[in-house]
Amino acid sequence: MKKRIFSGAQPTGELHIGNYLGALKNWVALQHEYESFFCIVNLHAITLPQNPEVLKKKTLDLARIYLASGIDPQVSTVFIQADVAEHAELAWVLSCVSRMGELERMTQFKDKGKGNTERAGVGLFTYPVLMAADILLYQTDLVPVGKDQKQHLELSRDLAERFNRDYGDAFVIPEPFIPPVGASIQSLQDPQKKMSKSDENLNGSIFLLDDADTVTKKIKRAVTDSGTDIKFDESRPAINNLLTIYHLVTDKSVAECEANFDGKGYGQFKTELAEAVVEFLRPFQARVADYADAELEKILKDGAEKARAIARETLRDVYEKMGIVRLS
Ligand code: TRP
Q1: Which of 120, 249, 292, 317 has the fewest beta carbons closer than 10 A?
Q2: Distance 146 CA to ligand 1 centre (A)
Q3: pTM metric for this prediction
């Protein structure tokens, strides 16, 4: 039996090449080896205020981006979180298993809540509980996530273990699956920071839907460090980041990348990098437009149906173990 993976992204902000290179590319590679579930977590999106019209549009846009990245709906289950009501139901159950103290320790809550717990939304506080529900509903073995989600995954494991101990085994204990280093892309304007969809400085991120001109301008404006060699070098985070992007979009090895820029200057490097990113985005952007709305909806509905069948079984077992009667 194949092991199962589950991952998801929020339909907020603009996806950038860091999201693709750090997460989506990895999902695509994993889908053949694992039984895969890729979710558009729109219920997580409302933990911060969203414009309803924009959220609607972004939800379907994100599905298109999943598919354009190479997630194959014949192979993987792609669906919208809100289509499977069990996510919200299990989140309620797990919130009764969670402790205030452990949620208070979540660093993302502290960051996003800006330290003001009086004003922070309760949904933002229980965000990781909904995430645990996402994962545990599917008896997930492995969760491909970035380093920043590791703490949330620890909580999922703790909740699963606590439930299993107190009520009997209902959940597989999920493991994090952090992609190898190099897949973390930093801001073009501040290589100490991750490329982020919520960065106010739009020049820091290359969005997956940016046109060729915009990409070229952003790369030309990218900050560089002192030194002239175009080489991978941890002590020069700016060039290291730009070369990593080149390495990942061209699929050239580290040695090939360095050989290609041996003796060349920053100007030449940035020109070639911009060309490589544009070449990489062109077919991607063409594929984003590939699916007609009806076809996309069909894929997502089929995905939800497959997901729901599994989710329903898990929730039935959980309710049964806890003594929650449900007559119909
Ligand atoms: N919290 C994740 C993020 O911001 C998104 C997410 C929600 C998720 N549910 C999940 C990721 C379940 C993996 C598994 O990136």
Answers
A1: 292
A2: 9
A3: 0.91
